[in-house]
Amino acid sequence: KVLILPIQGHGHSNLTLKNVKAKVQLLGKPMKKNGQDHMDVDKFKLHFNTDRLHIDLENLFNGDKALGDNMNAFLNENWQDILKELQPSIEDALGQTFQAIANRIFHKVLILPIQGHGHSNLTLKNVKAKVQLLGKPMKKNGQDHMDVDKFKLHFNTDRLHIDLENLFNGDKALGDNMNAFLNENWQDILKELQPSIEDALGQTFQAIANRIFHKV
Protein backbone atom coordinates (compact mmCIF):
# COMPACT_ATOMS: atom_id res chain seq x y z
CA LYS A 1 0.00 0.00 0.00
CA VAL A 2 1.23 3.47 -0.80
CA LEU A 3 0.42 4.88 2.61
CA ILE A 4 2.92 2.71 4.49
CA LEU A 5 5.46 5.50 4.07
CA PRO A 6 7.97 6.87 6.61
CA ILE A 7 6.37 10.31 6.84
CA GLN A 8 7.27 12.32 9.94
CA GLY A 9 6.65 15.93 10.83
CA HIS A 10 4.57 18.48 12.71
CA GLY A 11 2.86 21.15 10.63
CA HIS A 12 -0.11 22.15 8.53
CA SER A 13 -1.55 19.92 5.83
CA ASN A 14 -3.75 20.68 2.86
CA LEU A 15 -5.64 18.10 0.80
CA THR A 16 -7.61 19.66 -2.06
CA LEU A 17 -10.05 17.79 -4.31
CA LYS A 18 -10.61 19.33 -7.74
CA ASN A 19 -13.93 19.17 -9.62
CA VAL A 20 -15.69 16.81 -7.21
CA LYS A 21 -18.83 15.05 -8.41
CA ALA A 22 -20.86 13.13 -5.83
CA LYS A 23 -23.63 10.58 -6.25
CA VAL A 24 -25.99 9.94 -3.36
CA GLN A 25 -28.36 7.01 -2.98
CA LEU A 26 -30.94 7.37 -0.23
CA LEU A 27 -33.36 4.56 0.59
CA GLY A 28 -36.15 4.99 3.11
CA LYS A 29 -39.21 3.26 4.47
CA PRO A 30 -42.43 4.63 5.97
CA MET A 31 -42.80 4.88 9.73
CA LYS A 32 -45.44 6.16 12.14
CA LYS A 33 -44.64 8.70 14.84
CA ASN A 34 -47.35 10.29 16.97
CA GLY A 35 -49.90 9.14 14.42
CA GLN A 36 -48.13 10.91 11.55
CA ASP A 37 -46.46 9.37 8.50
CA HIS A 38 -42.71 9.91 8.32
CA MET A 39 -39.76 8.42 6.51
CA ASP A 40 -36.95 6.46 8.11
CA VAL A 41 -33.72 6.43 6.10
CA ASP A 42 -32.20 2.96 6.39
CA LYS A 43 -29.53 3.38 3.72
CA PHE A 44 -27.50 6.38 2.64
CA LYS A 45 -24.71 5.69 0.17
CA LEU A 46 -22.33 8.31 -1.13
CA HIS A 47 -19.76 7.98 -3.90
CA PHE A 48 -17.59 10.73 -5.31
CA ASN A 49 -15.15 11.23 -8.16
CA THR A 50 -12.52 13.90 -8.53
CA ASP A 51 -10.23 15.02 -11.32
CA ARG A 52 -7.30 15.52 -8.98
CA LEU A 53 -6.13 15.31 -5.38
CA HIS A 54 -3.50 17.89 -4.42
CA ILE A 55 -1.48 17.13 -1.28
CA ASP A 56 0.69 19.59 0.63
CA LEU A 57 2.24 18.48 3.94
CA GLU A 58 4.35 21.14 5.64
CA ASN A 59 7.42 20.84 7.87
CA LEU A 60 8.15 17.20 7.14
CA PHE A 61 11.26 15.50 8.51
CA ASN A 62 11.94 18.22 11.08
CA GLY A 63 11.90 20.94 8.45
CA ASP A 64 14.28 19.31 5.96
CA LYS A 65 13.04 21.10 2.82
CA ALA A 66 14.68 18.77 0.31
CA LEU A 67 13.20 15.63 1.89
CA GLY A 68 9.84 17.34 2.39
CA ASP A 69 9.65 18.54 -1.21
CA ASN A 70 10.56 15.08 -2.48
CA MET A 71 7.90 13.43 -0.32
CA ASN A 72 5.19 15.88 -1.42
CA ALA A 73 6.22 15.34 -5.04
CA PHE A 74 5.99 11.57 -4.56
CA LEU A 75 2.56 11.81 -2.91
CA ASN A 76 1.20 14.05 -5.67
CA GLU A 77 2.60 11.81 -8.39
CA ASN A 78 0.80 8.87 -6.76
CA TRP A 79 -2.38 10.70 -5.70
CA GLN A 80 -4.64 8.16 -7.42
CA ASP A 81 -3.25 5.27 -5.37
CA ILE A 82 -3.52 7.30 -2.16
CA LEU A 83 -7.11 8.30 -2.89
CA LYS A 84 -7.97 4.71 -3.75
CA GLU A 85 -6.75 3.73 -0.28
CA LEU A 86 -8.69 6.43 1.61
CA GLN A 87 -11.84 6.87 -0.48
CA PRO A 88 -13.91 3.87 0.74
CA SER A 89 -13.43 4.88 4.38
CA ILE A 90 -14.28 8.52 3.67
CA GLU A 91 -17.40 7.60 1.68
CA ASP A 92 -18.57 5.18 4.37
CA ALA A 93 -18.06 7.70 7.18
CA LEU A 94 -19.83 10.50 5.29
CA GLY A 95 -22.69 8.17 4.32
CA GLN A 96 -23.28 7.18 7.95
CA THR A 97 -23.16 10.81 9.04
CA PHE A 98 -25.62 12.07 6.45
CA GLN A 99 -27.93 9.13 7.17
CA ALA A 100 -27.99 10.12 10.84
CA ILE A 101 -28.59 13.77 9.96
CA ALA A 102 -31.36 12.88 7.50
CA ASN A 103 -33.16 10.76 10.09
CA ARG A 104 -32.93 13.47 12.73
CA ILE A 105 -34.57 15.82 10.25
CA PHE A 106 -37.27 13.41 9.12
CA HIS A 107 -37.99 12.11 12.63
CA LYS A 108 -38.15 15.47 14.40
CA VAL A 109 -38.75 18.46 12.18
CA LEU A 110 -41.20 16.67 9.95
CA ILE A 111 -43.64 16.14 12.78
CA LEU A 112 -45.25 19.06 10.94
CA PRO A 113 -47.87 17.95 8.40
CA ILE A 114 -45.49 18.37 5.46
CA GLN A 115 -46.21 16.25 2.42
CA GLY A 116 -44.84 16.38 -1.10
CA HIS A 117 -42.31 15.13 -3.61
CA GLY A 118 -39.83 17.66 -4.95
CA HIS A 119 -36.51 19.43 -4.50
CA SER A 120 -35.43 20.98 -1.22
CA ASN A 121 -32.86 23.64 -0.45
CA LEU A 122 -31.47 24.49 2.99
CA THR A 123 -28.96 27.35 2.91
CA LEU A 124 -26.85 28.54 5.84
CA LYS A 125 -25.69 32.16 5.60
CA ASN A 126 -22.35 33.39 7.00
CA VAL A 127 -21.35 30.17 8.74
CA LYS A 128 -18.55 30.32 11.31
CA ALA A 129 -17.22 27.03 12.66
CA LYS A 130 -15.00 26.30 15.64
CA VAL A 131 -13.12 23.01 15.80
CA GLN A 132 -11.45 21.47 18.85
CA LEU A 133 -9.16 18.55 18.14
CA LEU A 134 -7.46 16.64 20.95
CA GLY A 135 -4.94 13.90 20.28
CA LYS A 136 -2.47 11.67 22.04
CA PRO A 137 0.77 10.05 20.85
CA MET A 138 0.72 6.46 19.66
CA LYS A 139 3.26 4.02 18.28
CA LYS A 140 2.72 2.20 15.00
CA ASN A 141 5.40 0.10 13.37
CA GLY A 142 7.93 1.76 15.64
CA GLN A 143 6.97 5.24 14.44
CA ASP A 144 5.35 8.09 16.39
CA HIS A 145 1.85 9.01 15.24
CA MET A 146 -1.10 10.91 16.65
CA ASP A 147 -4.42 9.38 17.64
CA VAL A 148 -7.34 11.82 17.67
CA ASP A 149 -9.56 10.89 20.62
CA LYS A 150 -11.78 13.97 20.52
CA PHE A 151 -13.02 16.11 17.66
CA LYS A 152 -15.60 18.71 18.57
CA LEU A 153 -17.25 21.03 16.07
CA HIS A 154 -19.54 23.96 16.74
CA PHE A 155 -20.97 26.37 14.18
CA ASN A 156 -23.00 29.55 14.13
CA THR A 157 -24.96 31.02 11.27
CA ASP A 158 -26.73 34.31 10.69
CA ARG A 159 -29.65 32.66 8.93
CA LEU A 160 -31.11 29.38 7.74
CA HIS A 161 -33.16 29.65 4.55
CA ILE A 162 -35.55 26.77 3.81
CA ASP A 163 -37.22 26.12 0.46
CA LEU A 164 -39.27 22.94 -0.02
CA GLU A 165 -40.80 22.59 -3.47
CA ASN A 166 -44.03 20.93 -4.63
CA LEU A 167 -45.56 20.55 -1.19
CA PHE A 168 -49.09 19.21 -0.75
CA ASN A 169 -49.27 17.82 -4.29
CA GLY A 170 -48.37 21.16 -5.83
CA ASP A 171 -50.85 23.32 -3.91
CA LYS A 172 -48.95 26.62 -4.16
CA ALA A 173 -50.89 28.45 -1.44
CA LEU A 174 -50.36 25.70 1.14
CA GLY A 175 -46.74 25.24 0.08
CA ASP A 176 -45.97 28.96 0.33
CA ASN A 177 -47.58 29.13 3.76
CA MET A 178 -45.57 26.14 5.03
CA ASN A 179 -42.29 27.54 3.70
CA ALA A 180 -43.12 30.90 5.29
CA PHE A 181 -43.82 29.16 8.62
CA LEU A 182 -40.54 27.21 8.48
CA ASN A 183 -38.50 30.30 7.64
CA GLU A 184 -40.17 32.37 10.35
CA ASN A 185 -39.23 29.66 12.85
CA TRP A 186 -35.80 28.80 11.44
CA GLN A 187 -34.07 29.42 14.78
CA ASP A 188 -36.23 26.85 16.57
CA ILE A 189 -35.70 24.33 13.77
CA LEU A 190 -31.93 24.86 13.79
CA LYS A 191 -31.84 24.67 17.59
CA GLU A 192 -33.49 21.26 17.35
CA LEU A 193 -31.11 19.90 14.72
CA GLN A 194 -27.79 21.61 15.47
CA PRO A 195 -26.49 19.41 18.34
CA SER A 196 -27.09 16.25 16.31
CA ILE A 197 -25.49 17.71 13.19
CA GLU A 198 -22.43 18.90 15.13
CA ASP A 199 -22.04 15.55 16.88
CA ALA A 200 -22.37 13.56 13.66
CA LEU A 201 -19.93 15.78 11.76
CA GLY A 202 -17.47 15.68 14.66
CA GLN A 203 -17.48 11.88 14.68
CA THR A 204 -17.02 11.78 10.92
CA PHE A 205 -14.08 14.18 10.86
CA GLN A 206 -12.51 12.37 13.83
CA ALA A 207 -12.67 9.10 11.90
CA ILE A 208 -11.25 10.72 8.77
CA ALA A 209 -8.48 12.43 10.74
CA ASN A 210 -7.45 9.15 12.38
CA ARG A 211 -7.41 7.31 9.07
CA ILE A 212 -5.04 9.96 7.78
CA PHE A 213 -2.82 10.21 10.88
CA HIS A 214 -2.66 6.43 11.37
CA LYS A 215 -1.68 5.76 7.77
CA VAL A 216 -0.02 8.85 6.34
From TrEMBL:
<protein>
    <submittedName>
        <fullName>Uncharacterized protein</fullName>
    </submittedName>
</protein>
<dbReference type="InterPro" id="IPR010562">
    <property type="entry name" value="Haemolymph_juvenile_hormone-bd"/>
</dbReference>
<dbReference type="Pfam" id="PF06585">
    <property type="entry name" value="JHBP"/>
</dbReference>
<dbReference type="InterPro" id="IPR038606">
    <property type="entry name" value="To_sf"/>
</dbReference>
<dbReference type="GO" id="GO:0005615">
    <property type="term" value="C:extracellular space"/>
</dbReference>
